[in-house]
Structures
1.
Amino acid sequence: MKSSRRKFLKIAGVSALGLGAGPVLDVLASSGEHEATSTPEIKKGKDALTAKRWAMVVDTRKIESEEDLKPMIEACHKIHNVPDLANKNHEIKWIWLEEFKHEFPTQEHEFVDERVKHLPFLTLCNHCQNPACVRVCPTKATFKREDGIVLMDFHRCIGCRFCMAACPYGSRSFNFRDPRPFIKETNPEFPTRSKGVVEKCNFCAERLAVGKMPACVEASNGVLTFGDLDDPESEVRKLLKANYAIRRKPALGAGPSVFYII
Amino acid sequence: MNRYREWRMRMTNNKKIYDKGMVIIGLCIFVGVITFPFWFNLGNAAPAPEPKIADKAKAAKECVMPTAYMKMEHMQLLNEWRDTVVRDAKRIYVNSSGNEFNMSLTNTCLDCHTEKAEFCDKCHNYASVTPYCWECHIDPKETK
Amino acid sequence: MLEKALTGSKRYYGWMAALLVVIGVGFVCYLWQFRFGLGITGMSRDVSWGFYIAQFTFLVGVAASAVMVVLPYYLHDYKAFGKITVLGEFLAVASVTMCILFIFVDLGQPIRVMNVLLHPTPNSILFWDMIVLNGYLLLNIIIAYKVLEAERNNVAPAKWLKPLIYLSIPWAVSIHTVTAYLYCGLPGRGFWLTAILAPRFLSSAFAAGPALLILLCMIVRKFTKFDPGREQIQSLAKVVAYAITVNVFFFLCEVFVVFYSQIPDHMVHLQYLFAGVHGKGVLVPWMWASMILMVVSIILLVNPVTRKNETVLIVACITVFVGTWIDKGLGMISGGFIPNPLHHVNEYVPTVPEVLISIAVWAIGFLVLTVLYKVGITIKEEIAGLV
C-alpha cells in the first residue's frame, strides 16, 4: 500500500458518508407523509384593521405638559411588558419624550417660541416608508409589512444591532440583559422578550389585528390620530389636509409615517 | 530529491507500528469512553413520561390538530403559527374540522393545557429538551 | 505539516502556555456574558457597537493587507516577496479568524447565527460580510497550505492555485470595502456617511498590516533560523510609508470638508473626538496621541535614513500599528455613535470583562498565527538545509 494513512482516511470518509446517507434519506422520505387530510386554513380575524399605509398624527397643540403624554407612554409600556431598568445605559423605551431641539435638530434656532421650545414631544419609531433598519437587517428579522408597519421578528433576531446603528432616529432598544426581573406588572397576553434581541414600537400590530387602536392612541384623549394614509377619507388624511405638519429629519429620505402638527 | 521526501519514503516503506502497546491501551480507553452512554445506564432506563391532561383540555375533547399529529409535530405547527402571526399578520387558524383558533401559545394552547409543569414539562424534561419559547412566552401560572 | 507545531523550544511552549492562560480567562468571561447578556460590556442604547466591533474593523484591515505581498509577487513578478507570501497569507488567516470570533462574541443571540445563511438577505451588507470573510479565510488557508506543501516537496504549486491566487487579490480589497460599506451607507450617522471611508479604511489597513508583518519578520529573524530578508522588509516599509501618508491625507480631507462647510451636524463628531462636547471627552487624549503617532511614523518612514535603520524601523512600525489601532479601534466607533441621533452625549468606555474577552480573542489569533508560522518557518528552515 503506497500511502496507507491517506487511504485509510479516504475509506473512513466514504464509509461515514454511506452510513449517514441512510438515515438522511429516511427523514427526507418521511417528511412528505404528514400532509393533513384536508389542509387547514390560515386567515385574518374578522375584526382585523387593515390599511395600505398606517400612519400617526400627533397634534401638539393639544398638549400642555408632560402629564398629558405620560398616560400614553404608560399604556404602551404596560401592555407590551417593556421593562423598567435603572441603568440608563440599558434602558428600553418604545415611546418617550424629547425636547424640541432634540426631536427636530434641523429646525432648531435661537428664536423658537417659548411654548414650542419647552414642549415635550412624543418620540417613537417612525415606521418609515424606506426604512434603513430593514435594509441592513441580515436575517430579515426586521421587516416591513404590506400595511407599512416595520415589525420585529424576535425569534429570528441574532442581536447584531446593525438596525440600531442604521436607524436615523434612535428609536430602537437592545436587551442587554434578561428583561423579566424588571417588568413591573406582566401582561400575560403579550410575550416578553429575551436578552440579546432588539425591540421597538410595533404600532400595536397585535391590537390592530383584533380591531383595536394602538394603546397610546386610545390613551391619548385625542392628541394622537391613527389611520391609513392611503385612504383619502381617513382622519389622518383630513388632519394633514387642514394643518401643516412636520416630520423628523425628512431630508434623509426615510419617509417617516409619524407627523407632528405644531 | 530533498531530505523530506527521503524521510517520507523511508517511513511509508517501513511497516512498523511504534509504541504498539500504548496505542492499543489508548484505543481501548477511547472505545470505553465513547460507548459510555450505551453501557453505563444499562437496565436503569427512567420510566416513560405521562403528561397530565388538564381538566379544561379534557372538556374541550379535541385539540387544534389530532393528538397523534400534535405528539409528533406540535413544534412544526408552532413554527408555522409564529411565522404567520408575526410576518403575515394572520392570526386565525382553521383546522380540518373547521374550528377556528387564535394562533397563540400562551392564549390558546395554555388556555386549555393550563398546567405547563404537568403537561409540557413532563415530556420535555424526560427528553432533556429545553425549548427557549418560555424565555419570552409567558406561562399564565407564573404571573399569578 | 501541522505536527511541526507540536514540538519546539522551551520558549515556544512557554509562549503557547501563556496564550492558553489568557484565552482561558477570556473564555470564562465569555461564559458569563453568554449567560448574563451583553450588559456586562460598556455598550449602551446609544453606543450599541463597541470594542468588539472596533477590533473586528481593525483586524479586517490587517487581514486584507496580505494583498500587499501577494500582488507584487504574483502580478508583477517581484521575486523577493516570494520568500514571505506564505507569512503574509498566514497573518491573513489569523486575522480573519479573529474577525469572525469578534463578530461572534458581539452577537446578542449567537446560537442563531446561522439565520444569516438560512434567510439570506442580499440587501444587507452584513450578509455579504459573512460571505466575503469566510471566503477569504478559505482562500488563504488553501493557497498558503498548498504553496507551502509544494515548496516542501520541491515542486511547482498545482496549476489550479493560480486562479485562486489571482482571485484573492480583489477579494482582499473587497473584504475591507464591504466592512467599510457596513458604516458608510447608514443615513443617520454623519461621521461615517462619507465616500472616503472605504479608501481610508484600505489605506490604514495597508499601513497597519504590513507594519505588523515587518515586526513579525523581525521576530522570526531573531528567534528562528529563517531570515525573511532585508530587501523584503525594506519593500514592506516603503508600502507602509505610502499607506500611512495617504491615510493621514484622507483624514485631513475629512477634517477640511467638515470644518470648512461649518455644518454643525457634521462637525460635532470630530469635535467630540478631538475636543469633547458638553464637557464629555474621554477619547480626546487618545485621538491626539493617535495623530501624533501617525505623523511621527510618516516622518520616520518617508525619510530613507531612518527607514533603513532597522531599529528605528521597529519603532516606526509600532507607532503605525498603535496609531491606526486607536484611530480605527477606538475613535471610529464612538465617533459615529456620539452624539446620538437625538444629539445626546452618552459616552462609551469598555468594561474589564469586555476587554478580557477581547484580549482572549487576540490571543486566539496569535495562537493560530504561532502555529501556522511554526509550521511554515520550520519547513522553510528544512528546505534551506538549516536544520
2.
Amino acid sequence: MKLKNEFVIAIAGKAGQGILSMGDFIQHIAQNVGLYSFVWVDYPSLIKGGHNVVFIRISDTPIYAPVEQINYLIALDAESLEIHWDEIFKKGVLIYDKDIVKKEISQKPNKTQPFFGVGVPFNAISRGINKSTRYANTVAIATLHYVLGWELATYAKILEKKFKKKSQQIVDDNISAMKQGYEYAEENYDSIFTHQLNKGQAEPYYSIDGSQALAFGAIKAGVKFTAAYPMTPATPIFDHLAAHSDKYGIIAKQAEDEISAICMTVGASYAGARALTMSSGGGFSLMVEALGLAGITETPLVVVNAMRGGPSTGLPTKTEQSDLRFVLHASQGEFPRVVLAPGDSVELYQLIQESFNLADLYQLPVIVLTDKYLATSQMIFPKDTDLDAISVDRGILINSQKELGGDEKYARYLFTKDGVSPRALPGSNGITFHSGSDEHNEYGEICEDPHNRVKMMDKRMRKEKTMLPSIPKPKIYGHTNADITLISWGSTKWAAIEAIELLANHNILANVMHFNYIYPFNIAKTQPLLDKIKRSIIIENNATGQFAGLLKQYFNFEPEHSLLKYDGHPFYPDEIAKIILNQMF
Amino acid sequence: MKPKKDLSSHYTQSTPNWCPGCGNYGIWVSLKNALQELKLPAHKVVLVGDIGCSGKLAYWTDYNGFGSLHGRSIPIAEGVKIANSDLTVIVVGGDGGLLGEGLQHFLHACRRNVNIAVVLHNNQVYGLTTGQTSPTSDPGYQSSTTPEGSYETPLNPSLLALTAQATFVSASFAGNTPHLTQTIKSAILHPGFALVDIYQPCVTYNYINTYEYYSKRVYDITTTPYKPDNRFRAMKKSMEIEGGEKFPIGILYQDESRPSLQDNIQNRVAPLVKQSINNITVKSLFEQD
C-alpha cells in the first residue's frame, strides 16, 4: 500500500442504506482514538437507490483534502463492487456481504484481484438478531474493525451513546451485531492485512461540514432572518439555521421561490435585522434582479451561492466553481459588491461573519461562494480556533431625529466623501425617509437629473475604494520564494496545499497563493505578490479559467499553466502534483 | 440648502406626476387620510411600492417609503414586517405587478397571513408602459400588445385571495374616497393579511372602465344585509363583478380568528430588530453531536 500513516475507507451502496451514518460512526471512532479525519461524499440526485459513496480519510497528521484512493471498501451491494473494483489499492481490502455478492472473491490478492477479500454475512447476522437487516451496517463496521486491527471498545461506547435514547434493546442488539460480525471475521480470515494506525495524538478538533461552519458563523454574526427555497447543495445551511432558530431568536422562512426569498431578506435587512439568503446557481439566477435592488437602495445583503455543476440543472449533486463570473456581474447596471470564496471550514465560519460586517459597513450586497464539495465535506475545525475573533460591526446608524440635530431632514443617501451615507432604520424616532430602486437624490426621491445621476453613481461606486483597507491580500502557504506557485481560490485551497509536500518529494519547491477575497481586489497589496512569482499554475473547478481571467484583467498576470476540472469532482492533491510533474518539469 | 420638514403634515413636498384625473390621486388621498385618522406615527409606517404608476405612491408621502421591484413588493413587505412587527407595512401596487409578475407572492402571502395590507390599484391596464393589456383587462380590450382585442378571461383578485385563504378581502373605488379611506383603515387594523382591491380608472388608456362606468355600477354592501363572515358567501359575492354590471364594495370577508404569521412567530422569538447581536456564543453548536 502506498501509505504514509493514512488510509481511506470508502463505504458504497444505495441511497437509503445508511451510508452517511456509517461514515459518521467511523469518523467518530477515528476522532475518539486521536486520529485526524476528512469525510467527503459522492452521490446522485435521487432519494432512494442509485450509487452513493462516503469516503473517510484517516491519518495521524492533519488532513484537509480528499485523495483519490481507496484502501478499504465496504460494499453494501453488488454494484458497488463492480464500480470500484479497479479503484481499490493493491493490497487493500474489500469488505462485502457474502450473501449478496455472488462473484467469486479470493481472500488473498491475485492477478485479477489485487486486494484482499473479506466476506461476512452482514444481513444474515442481523436477521439472526431481530429478524431484520437493520443491524447489517453494524456488522460491516465491526468487520472493518477486525481488518484494521481496531479495538471494539470505542465503537461500543459510541453505539451506546447514540442509541441509548431510543432503547436499551437497540443498544444491546447493536452490540450483539458488532460482536458477531467481528467474531465471524476473526474465525474465517487470517489477520494478515491489519493496518497499524489505531491511535494518534491529534490536536483536538471538531469535525463539521461546510454548511455547519457557515451556519454557525452566521449565527455568531447575529443573523436574525433567513429565507430560502430548497436547492441542493445550499439547503443544509438553511436547515441548520432553522434547527437552532428558537435558541438564537432567528426566523427561518421557507419562501415560495428564490425571488421571494431574496426579497424577504432585503426587506428584513432594510428593517434592520441581519439577514441571509442562500441558493445554488439556479436559484441565484432568479435572485439576480433583487441583488441590484439591494445595490441601488444600499441595503446590506448577504447571499450564499453554493455552486454545483451547471449550466441549468446541470449536475445537481456534484461540485463546480463555475458561477464566479456570473455572481461578479449578476444584475443589470453597475453597483458595488463584494465576492468572497472561503476555502475550508474555518474560513467559512469567519468569512460569513466578515460578510455581514462588510454588508453593514458599506451598505451593499456581499456574495459568498461555496460549492457542493465544501458544503458536504466534514473538515477539521481545530478546537483552539478563537470562535469570538470577529466582532459585530454594524457601521454608521442614526437612531433618531435627535441625533441629526434640529429640524434637519434626514438624507438617506447623503453625498459623503467615502460614499457611505449614515443609515437610519424605518421606525427610528422622528425620522422618515425614502429608499428606492429608481435612481434618486440624497433624500431617496426619484430623480433623473443627469448631474445628480453622476454624483449618486460616483457615491455608490466610491464604496469599493473606501472598503479596500478591509480587503486583505491573498495568503501564501509554503515558502515565500518557491520555484512554482499554485494559485487557488475558494475550495481548491487544501488540495493545492497538500500538493506542496508531494512536489517536495520530487525536489520541487512549491507554494500556494490562496484567494478568498475575490472582489474587489486589493490591487496595491496583491500586485507585488504576483510579480514575485517565478512559475505558476492556476487550479480551478471550471472549464473556462474564470479566475485566471480576473488575474489577467486586474493584474495583467497570466499563469504559465492552467489546471481546470469540471467533471463534477473536487481536486485531489495527487492529480495536481502529477500534472505539475508531467507537464511543467 | 436642505429643505425643512414639517413633521405635522405628513404630506410630502415632492409632488406626484400622475396624469391629471388619474385614479391614483383618490387612492393617494384616501391612504393618507386613513393613516392620519389612525394617528399612526409617521416613522412607524412603511409603504412598499411596486413598479408602475401606483408604486410611485410610496415616494410621495412623508411616511417611510421603499420603492421596490415589479411584482416583488409583497415579499419585501413581508420581510420588513417579520423583522420589525412594530411597523405598519402597506403594499401599494397595481394589477400588473401584484397579479401578473408577482402573482405567486400575492397568493402565498394570503395563506401565510402576514400582517400587511395590500392596496391594489386595479386599473386594468399597464399604464406606465403605455396601456398594454393586464391580468384584469376586460375581454376585448385593445392595446398595442393585443391589437385584435384581448381574448383572455380576467383574473378576479378578491376571489383569488379568498381561495388562497386570505383573512381580509375587500373592494373599493378610487372615485369614492370616503369609502376607500374607511376600507383602507379596516385593512390596516386587520390582524393578518388584508387586500383592498380598488377599481381605479386610468384616464389615459382605459376608455371603458371610467369613473362614470364604475360610479354607475359600484354599490356599498353595507347598505345590503350582507355579512362578511362566510368565506363561501364571500366567494359568491366576489363573483358578481364577472357579469360586468355590479361591483360590490366594502369588506367581503374578514376572519380575525386565524393567527397571523406574526402571532406564530411572537411565541417563539423576540422581535428581530430588538435583539442584541453582540457577544453571541456558539461554542455549544460545535460541541453537540
